[in-house]
Design brief:
By secondary structure, the chain is an all-alpha fold. It has helices at about 10-20, 25-40, 50-60, 70-80. α2 (about 25-40) runs antiparallel to α3 and α2 (about 25-40) packs across α4. It starts with 10 loop residues before the first helix and ends with a helix. This is Competence protein TfoX.
């Protein structure tokens, strides 16, 4: 499945993912939301925690705002970010 077809992902986030070698849902799944987010961040793109939530939501087929506070907190911890 093409990334642009996933929930929460728009043109810019798809371009960032493509820039780090993630071009489809299977590749995103293989990296996981945290892994993909860290790759994009380390590439030098100015990202916010919303991208992390959006990636997780895309994998879960859920709007990022519907993720539980506990899951959001765990994602941030796993990515080495602060609340």
């Amino acid at each position: 499945m093409d990334l642009i077809e996933l929930k929460n992902l728009g043109k810019t986030s798809v371009q960032w993912l493509n820039a780090v070698g993630i071009r489809n849902r299977d590749q995103l799944q293989a990296h996981g939301a945290v892994g993909a987010y860290v790759k994009v961040r380390e590439r030098g793109f100015k990202v916010s925690k919303v991208l992390l939530y959006a990636l997780e939501g895309a994998l879960m087929n859920s709007h990022w705002n519907d993720l539980s506070p506990e899951l959001k907190k765990q994602l941030l911890q796993d990515a080495g970010e602060k609340d």
